[in-house]
């Protein structure tokens, strides 16, 4: 499976799949708002229940027009390219009526079906990238399907043994873009140290370097690596992970031609004087790097899965059930992160396309 289609028809907007996420959350609303806002530059194809999305669009703005297609029709005839006066929807029906703000496990499998349709669409060449709205993990698990998140699901379904979670966004700490990748993701803090290995960090650095080159168009990526312990271990007095695991992995990466440096104390690394010389920071665990990034970029941040044989971006927030409970068009949900995710996916698709020429 390639990360993007090798050709585009002249004059046709690139097509990107947008899975609308948990139907009881703000995902459907922000997906519609963002797709409509960016409709002149990209053909955002919504994957979700067509009737529900049409109702939601009408509540947001009566001028928003949707055109629904069945998944079978697209399989048989390909994806039609409508103009920017409407949003294309591939119908993935829900199993239960949606009450905004209230979760229903009966719709858990339908949410997963939108992810499956996005993967199918990439494989079939309908889409150049996938953007995902937030979903509720508990709803899917309550539906009887073991599910730990988008990242893991796309990795499993594409047969990808190692992926890397990275968040990115414009920032006020110096430089044009702040990117933070994670060596571990959704783990209890007590399990992080045992999850770090030289080989694992080596694979992560390889993936970051390759995707920054191929999908971000950065010719010589510079990666700054955080230590695990306070003060990066204080020479071994506060832990030996830096000495035994992190430093050897960095040195091995350098020997492979990767511009990685560190380990640096995380409490001092996130300063303009360091970040201005970095294309990405690799943090060792979730709450080491993401609080800084979200403070600097929240509302405009983008979640990106590196290492997949496809381009996948997402928002940097959750389902916001409390906002959704106000009702479509009344929640005033901010679609800024979704718009940024669409723009990031389009830019990555363009870079991938350029690298194939």
From TrEMBL:
One of its GO terms (cellular component) is cytoplasm. One of its GO terms (molecular function) is NAD binding. It catalyses: 4-(phosphooxy)-L-threonine + NAD(+) = 3-amino-2-oxopropyl phosphate + CO2 + NADH. InterPro entries: PdxA (IPR037510), PdxA_fam (IPR005255). Its cofactor is Zn(2+); Mg(2+); Co(2+). Binds 1 divalent metal cation per subunit. Can use ions such as Zn(2+), Mg(2+) or Co(2+). It is found in: Cytoplasm. Substrate binds at residues 150-151, 294, 303, 312. GO terms for biological process: pyridoxal phosphate biosynthetic process; pyridoxine biosynthetic process. A divalent metal cation binds at residues 186, 231, 286. Belongs to the PdxA family. The active site is located at the dimer interface. This is 4-hydroxythreonine-4-phosphate dehydrogenase.
